[in-house]
Each structure stands twice: as C-alpha cells, then as structure tokens.
Write a structure and sequence with these properties.
By secondary structure, the protein is mainly alpha-helical. It contains 4 helices and no strands. It is 85% helix and 0% strand. α1 runs antiparallel to α2. It is a multi-pass membrane protein.
Length: 136
C-alpha cells in the first residue's frame, strides 16, 4: 500500500479481520487477569462485552462488504434486506445479552465497559498501523 488512494476492499477486510484477531488476543490475556483480580462474574462480563464488540465489528464487515459490492457492480450482490435483517437481529441479541448479563451477573460494570471498548481499541490500533504503513 502506498496511500489512502490505493485502499481496496481487500485492505478493508484485512483490517477488520486483524482487529478481530487483536480483540481475541487481548481477551485471552485479560480474562484470566480479570478473573483473578475481580472474580468470575467480572471476567464473564468482560467476555460478554468483547463478544458484543467483536460481533459489531463482524457485522460492520458484512454491511460494508455488501455496500462495496453494490458500488463496484462487478459481482452479484447478496440481497441488502438479508444483510440488514442480520444487522438488526444481532443488535437485538446484543441488547438482550447486555440486559441479562447486567441483571444476573454481579460483576464489575467496568469490566463490561472494557469488553465493549475492546473493539474500538482494536480497530484504532489497526488504523494506526495503516497510517504508519502509508507514511513509510
């Protein structure tokens, strides 16, 4: 890659998958530490937040891939209605998961917030890596 003008669909997909991989690595390292420090309910809340965050990144990948296929016009696109239904179903499941986990787990809400923030953090790290690659 030489700059933002050469950013392709494949680069976008690679960035999202790298962010998801980084999220998983952080969760694998952080969960035992949170369990040790704050107990299993907090560790489970961290996992719930990370799953919601990771599913959001994955859903963003699906939405943007569907939009990009339509914009390019070269391939046959999946029906946008199915992609949007999947998005709203995931959103509903995320809300239900948040509600149930907050109601029945007496762990730290900060662990849940940290799990939810991991997706943004991982995406920011990948964005910084892209900027570094463009400037070199």
């Amino acid at each position: 890659m030489t700059g933002i003008n050469s950013y392709t669909d494949a680069d976008f997909k690679r960035t999202i998958w790298s962010a998801l991989r980084l999220l998983v690595i952080i969760v694998v390292v952080a969960t035992p530490l949170v369990w040790w420090k704050a107990g299993w309910p907090s560790a489970l809340l961290l996992l719930v937040g990370a799953v919601i965050s990771g599913s959001g990144l994955f859903e963003w990948l699906r939405l943007m891939s569907a939009v990009m296929v339509r914009m390019d016009g070269g391939q046959t696109a999946r029906p946008m209605a199915m992609v949007l239904v999947g998005f709203f179903v995931r959103l509903g499941i995320a809300v239900a998961l948040l509600y149930v986990s907050l109601k029945y787990l007496n762990g730290s809400v900060y662990a849940l917030a940290a799990g939810l923030a991991l997706g943004v953090f991982a995406l920011a790290v990948e964005g910084l890596r892209l900027m570094k690659a463009w400037t070199v």
